[in-house]
Write a structure and sequence with these properties.
- The complex is a heterotrimer of chains A (393), B (481) and C (344).
- Chain A has 393 residues and is of the alpha/beta class.
- Chain A has twelve helices and 15 strands.
- Chain A folds into two domains: 141 residues, Rossmann fold (3-Layer(aba) Sandwich); 204 residues, Rossmann fold.
- In chain A, 38% of the residues lie in helices and 17% in strands.
- In chain A, helix 9 links the parallel strand 8 and strand 9.
- The N terminus of chain A is likely disordered.
- By secondary structure, chain B is α/β, with parallel strands linked by helices.
- Chain B folds into three domains: 229 residues, Rossmann fold (3-Layer(aba) Sandwich), CATH 3.40.50; 172 residues, P-loop containing nucleotide triphosphate hydrolases (Rossmann fold), CATH 3.40.50.300; 59 residues.
- In chain B, 34% of the residues lie in helices and 25% in strands.
- Chain B has 17 helices and 20 strands.
- In chain B, the strands form four sheets. A six-stranded mixed β-sheet of chain B has the order 6-7-8-3-9-10, with helices on both faces.
- The longest helix of chain B is centred in the middle third of the chain and has 16 residues.
- Chain C has one domain: ABC transporter involved in vitamin B12 uptake, BtuC (Orthogonal Bundle).
- In chain C, helix 3 crosses helix 12 and helix 11 crosses helix 12.
- Classes of the chains: A alpha/beta (393), B alpha/beta (481), C mainly alpha (344).
- Chains A and C meet through helix 1, strand 2, helix 3 and helix 4 of A and helix 2, helix 3 and helix 13 of C.
């Protein structure tokens, strides 16, 4: 009985489908990929970087086509679930789905299980590492830790007061390791390049609660940034998707204060206030996406957990580097030279900031003297480090 | 200002409520207007203040014919009215209330208006703080403010509707003094009141209305029995009354009962109702009878004292307890309080009898037949006429009821229907229990009741078995004498 | 049946106004109305999978609307339905968290739904008490409690119930698949949840239109002063009305947790409570049209995702259409009343 009802319903649905669905003819080498963006596609931040990456693929890989849907989060689109959007993208011919937010982890995994024939990339996730991912789901992330080290390095070079602030989003492993990377870069500049004593250096982290401001839910990033500057910090590193820290620093500069900020995520972020901007570490998703789509067009797919390095020969090479850093207009020539040397040392392996001895914030050892952190030790960073102020959990 | 009304008529549909009223009030005098409820006083006042249009007749001010078709027109002519309920804005201050509505006045400067208010208040020896919040004022003080507003806008004819209701004796004295004072300044005052003692104390002349006609006009000094005789119909013959039965066991006790509400409240009421009694509550409307019935029905909680029904205290109980013990109340506002608009007869019987729809339909059909309700079981209550609504309410009284409380039960019924209603009620409920009812018509009470309670200003001033009732005495008691 | 014909003309009139208004709006922004309506339709009824998404919205929306109907019958504006849905979700999530290792998922799911209904009913009772005991108007009480419920759910997700090591807007750790509300292989909507909703519709129809309880509730809503004289307690029926309202919203919240998101997320109510208010108003507070209007609104919600994808239009168009529906319905009902008033 039940199966008959079901058969009836299915055939009715199929009839509807024939009536309304456009005849979808896809040639073998064409790849349509669907992109789920957590924020607006033009947010000058995280989501826009992905969106541009997708456009890059369309340009470089013949026959590829992107369908995107932005603001994929329950606050902006109530009632929306990831499996639901994925179904729709699959209906429209997508054979690869990219989800760009950590928040989509559960939904992507569920959708991947429902569509074994479709390939999925979850950005910033670790389902492959933990073994929870079905075979058609891969993880991808760029090693922003290097970008953050550069940002921190520049901050440490520039600060006069020796007090650097970090405007953090919510607390998780990713955001902890990015804050820690910034700290390591800044401390290196302060003690090794400028030769100043470590005890005159302060690094403060405040978390607002999410990647961008949600009035009534998160702390207001503008207020937090003002607070930093009011308490003697003169360089603010932004760890959130939007540019409040830069805007506030620019306002203070116009009032005569000698303060700076570094935004995050998107190559063009400095443009809104170049005088206050020391530089921006950014993601460049295009090359990785193009590689995956090209592979798929040739029938190649291998599940992987990928953590892509910058192209050390030229970190701002748009065709080859997953991570870049654009020095800002406010960065002095002298410090630019220091930065280049720093990048070269990182690239050559001469310098590894994740080297012991390093302690966690609560004093327990993280790395012994002479020990270098493994990828997993960095990825699953349990706390902030000793010497940083701010909540670890 | 001298005012003269000539042959004022008013029809409401078929009802002819004012039948050619002639009234002349001299400039600089206080003129009283008295009459029973429904005599036509309010209608006449509404015509004079422009809230109702007249069906015929002329209005002359200082000998000149005027139209008073809108309240604004009346106000512009210098006619102002002091209502029973203050017509003001409680969230504002005294001064705001004084200024409000004068937006077009050329001088709206607060300081000058404050001085003006103070000046007017000093003239009549009122004591009002301009910055006080109106909410904190007593009714008497709010009335004083209204009075000053009328003076402030140069009202030359002041109409006062029951001005002493709900105010203290001290405030009453002040008001009377102020009235005398402004009369001496040449203003004309028309006083509408039930309270003959006040009318006698204040007025220079009095016009008495009865059934929409002028039944008499008197000059000071007044003779109260004569005024009463002009106000009320002559005592009807009492031989039609059924033989009074000896009262049975006590059913309902009211002990030292006080409550607030209905303007006057109810104060220190003591009374016992016995099985077999038909008790009539007499009094001018709003003297506490409605509150008495609602207290007895446990719809209102007393502020002091106790109601006991069949030996059970009803304090902190609601009407459900009363109803379980055999009580039942029929309000005067049938559609507002007694019936449910939009509900059919069947719905009502389902609610009242707590039965199935089928049984309710049968009951509704029986009731339509027995009570001669013009409607079908599926008619909605609001589609019935007033009389038929009353029949429906009567038909909903549970058969076993032993305490039937009725508020103006025959209002809106013709004489024949009213007679039928009373025969029905007596036959079915007076034997097994008691009936307590209020009525706006003294005649009805005297014709139907075995016992009369007379209400005045929230107090029971007489409690008389019918064989000791004297028509003149009751009429006098109703008006505070 | 002149009544039916009148309802039909009203409905057509409302739809015509809404279509004209929306088309005008689209024309102003330079988009093709035909194309937009086509995408809305195809995006909601174009395939079985899409239609099942529509049903997934229809279930909580219908449940909330049914609940609201009980409160409306007793004369209450239960704006707090949104918060009651949140509390229902919290109750269900609480039980499921506790029962992760119980080994009896069916029992746990039943308990979860019951706990959600109970918690939401108590939350509604709070608004009812504020009304009957405290004299607080239920609209203000409801709005206030909605804010409080948002505070509670955020606190739970970012506090005691956060994922190991991480607090995230994406909610709590998902429940194991055993604790997902059961569905059939290949179904994107649970037939059991559908059946539950249809059952709720049938029971509501019986209770509201054919039971003495329903009549009493309606009497209280029509004239709370008069019902005392019939030996009914208006307070009692107000409270019962809002409790049932809350319980149904709680059921919707519980199903969102166990059947849709499989975890607690901050936006678990998805605004279905407020949308339910619109549904009930558009239905002119009658039961029969509710499932159909809810289906229409659900289709708009689901179909509207096509607009940004296919036409780069903002998907809030669906909200505009829903709002326009209610406004034009109020207009049509109002005109009808005015006309009736003139020629009685």
């Amino acid at each position: 009985m039940r199966s008959r009802v079901r058969a009836l319903l299915v055939s009715a649905a199929a009839a509807l489908l024939c009536l309304f669905a456009p005849a979808a003819v896809i040639s073998a080498e064409e790849v349509t990929f669907g992109m789920l963006l957590v924020g607006p596609h033009n947010d000058h931040g995280w989501s826009q970087a992905h969106y541009e990456g997708g456009r890059y693929v369309e340009e470089k890989v013949a026959g590829s086509k992107m369908i995107y849907i932005d603001k994929v989060n329950p606050a902006d689109r109530p009632g929306l679930t990831i499996p639901m959007v994925v179904d729709d993208l699959v209906d429209k011919g997508a054979t690869l789905i990219i989800g760009n937010s950590d928040d989509m982890k559960d939904g992507i995994r569920e959708a991947a299980a429902q569509h074994p024939e479709i390939k999925f990339i979850h950005i910033s996730g670790d389902d492959v590492l933990t073994g929870k991912a079905p075979a058609n789901l891969s993880n991808l992330m760029g090693r922003m830790e290097y970008g953050k080290m550069m940002a921190g390095f520049v901050a440490g070079l520039t600060t006069n007061s020796g007090k650097v602030a970090y405007l953090g989003p919510l607390i998780n492993e990713e955001t902890r390791r990015l804050a820690v990377s910034s700290y390591l870069g800044a401390r290196h500049a302060w003690t090794q390049v400028r030769g100043k004593p470590a005890d005159q250096f302060r690094f403060k982290v405040s978390w607002i609660g999410f990647w961008f401001n949600i009035p009534g839910v998160t702390a207001d990033p503008t207020q937090v940034a003002r607070n930093f500057l009011d308490t003697g910090h003169d360089v603010v590193l932004s760890g959130i998707d939007t540019t409040e820290a830069l805007i506030v620093a620019d306002q203070r500069r116009k009032e005569g204060a000698d303060v700076y900020a570094l935004p995050y995520d998107f190559i063009g972020s400095c443009n809104s206030a170049p005088e206050a901007c020391l530089g921006v570490p950014y993601f460049n998703w295009g090359p990785d996406y193009a590689r995956i789509v090209r592979g798929l067009a040739n029938g190649e797919w291998k599940q992987s957990w990928t953590w892509t390095n910058p192209n050390w020969a030229d970190i701002n090479d748009i065709d080859h580097s997953a991570i870049g850093f654009v020095p800002g207009a406010a960065l002095s020539e002298e410090n630019k030279a220091h930065l280049q040397a720093f990048i070269d040392d990182l690239g050559s392996g001469k310098l590894n900031l994740f080297s012991g001895p390093l302690n966690y914030q609560d004093g327990t050892p993280y790395l012994q003297a002479g020990e270098k952190a493994s990828d997993k030790q960095i990825w699953y960073l349990k706390q902030l480090l000793e010497g940083m102020e701010g909540a670890s959990k | 200002m001298q005012i003269e009304l000539q042959q004022i008529h008013k029809h409401f549909g078929k009802a002819h409520v004012l039948k050619g009223i002639d009234l002349k009030v001299d400039a600089g005098s206080i003129h009283g207007l008295v009459g029973e409820n429904g005599a036509g006083k309010s209608t006449l006042m509404k015509i004079l203040t422009g809230y109702l249009s007249r069906s015929g007749g002329r209005i002359l001010l200082d000998g000149e014919e005027v139209e008073c078709e809108t309240p604004a027109a009346a106000a512009a002519l210098g006619i102002g009215m002091l209502y029973q309920e203050p017509q003001d804005f409680p969230p504002l201050t005294v001064l705001d209330n004084f200024i409000v509505g004068r937006d077009t006045h050329p001088d709206n400067h607060r300081g000058r208006q404050q001085a003006r208010l103070q000046n007017l208040a000093d003239q009549v020896h009122f004591n009002l703080d301009g910055e006080a919040q109106l909410e904190q004022l007593t009714v008497g003080e709010r009335q004083q403010l209204e009075f000053l507003r009328l003076l402030g806008r140069d009202a030359r004819l002041l109409i006062l509707d029951e001005p002493t209701t709900g105010i203290s004796d001290r405030q009453k004295e002040r008001l009377f003094a102020a009235l005398h004072q402004i009369r001496d300044q040449g203003r004309t005052i028309l006083l509408v009141s039930h309270k003959l003692e006040e009318v006698v104390a204040l007025c220079d002349r009095v016009t008495i209305l009865r059934h929409g006609e002028v039944s008499g006009e008197e000059s000071a000094p007044f003779h109260i029995p004569r005024l009463l005789a002009l106000m009320f119909d002559q005592s009807p013959a009492t031989d039609a009354k059924p033989q009074r039965r000896a009262p049975g066991d006590a059913l309902l006790w009211l002990r030292n009962l006080s409550a607030s509400g209905e303007r006057t409240g109810l104060h220190d009421c003591n009374c016992t109702i016995h099985q077999g009694e038909v008790v009539g509550l007499a009094g001018l409307s709003g003297s506490g009878q409605g509150l008495f019935l609602r207290l007895a029905a446990a719809l209102v909680q007393p502020t002091a004292g106790e109601v006991e029904f069949h030996g059970r205290s009803l304090n902190r109980r609601d009407h459900r307890t009363m109803r379980r013990l055999g009580g039942c109340f029929l309000p005067a506002n049938r559609l507002e309080e007694g019936l449910i608009a939009g509900f059919t007869l069947v719905d009502h019987f389902t609610l009242a009898l707590r039965c199935s729809r089928r049984e309710a339909r049968a009951a509704a059909e029986r009731a339509i037949d027995k009570f001669r309700i013009r409607g079908t079981p599926d008619s909605t209550a609001d589609s019935l006429s007033g009389g038929n609504q009353q029949r429906l309410l009567l038909s909903l009284i549970p058969t076993g009821a032993n305490m039937v409380l009725l508020e103006n039960p025959t209002r809106g019924l013709d004489v024949e229907s009213a007679g039928w209603v009373w025969r029905y009620l007596r036959k079915h409920y007076a034997g097994q229990g008691a009936i307590v009812f209020s009525s706006a018509e003294l005649d009805e009470i005297l014709a139907v009741a075995d016992r009369v309670l007379v209400f005045f200003d929230g107090r029971v001033v007489r409690d008389l078995p019918m064989d000791r009732v004297d028509y003149q005495d009751v009429a006098a008691a109703m008006t505070g004498n | 049946m002149p009544n039916l014909r009148q309802h039909l003309t009203d409905t057509l009139l409302i739809l015509a106004i809404v279509l004209a208004f929306t088309a005008l709006l689209l024309a102003i922004v330079g988009a093709s109305p035909i194309e937009a309506f086509g995408h809305l339709f195809k995006g909601s009824f174009g395939s079985w999978s899409k239609f099942s998404r529509v049903l997934n919205v229809w279930i909580p929306l219908t449940l909330c609307s049914l609940g609201l109907l009980y409160a409306f019958r007793s004369g209450l504006w239960n704006i707090g339905v949104e918060g009651q849905m949140v509390l229902g979700a919290i109750g269900a999530a609480g039980v499921l968290r506790w029962g992760v290792d119980s080994g009896n998922p069916l029992l746990m799911l039943t308990l979860a739904l019951l706990a959600g209904m109970l918690l939401a009913a108590l939350w509604a009772l709070l608004a009812g008490w504020l009304k009957t005991r405290g004299g607080v108007h239920e609209i203000f009480a409801g709005l206030g409690l909605n804010f409080v419920s948002m505070g509670i759910i955020l606190w739970l997700i970012f506090g005691p119930w956060k994922r190991p090591g991480i607090a995230s807007m994406s909610g709590t750790e998902p429940f194991p698949a055993a604790l997902w509300f059961p569905t059939l292989e290949g179904w994107r909507v649970s037939p059991f949840a559908l059946a539950l909703t249809v059952l709720a519709i049938i029971i509501t129809a019986r209770v509201l239109n054919h039971s003495r309880f329903g009549l009493n509730l309606k009497a209280v809503g029509h004239n709370p002063r008069a019902v005392s004289l019939y030996g009914l307690s208006p307070q009692f029926y107000l409270l019962i009305g809002i409790i049932i309202s809350g319980a149904l919203a709680g059921l919707a919240g519980g199903l969102q947790v166990s059947g849709i998101y499989h975890r607690l997320i901050p936006a678990i109510s998805s605004g279905y409570g407020y949308l339910g208010l619109l549904v009930v108003m558009l239905a002119n507070f009658r039961l029969l049209p509710i499932p159909f209007i809810a289906l229409f609104f659900a289709a708009l919600n689901v179909g509207s995702i096509q607009l940004p994808m296919m036409m780069q239009l903002d998907s809030s168009l669906s909200g505009v259409i829903q709002g326009a529906c209610v406004l034009s319905a109020l207009l049509v009902f109002g005109l009808r009343k005015l006309k009736r008033g003139r020629n009685p």
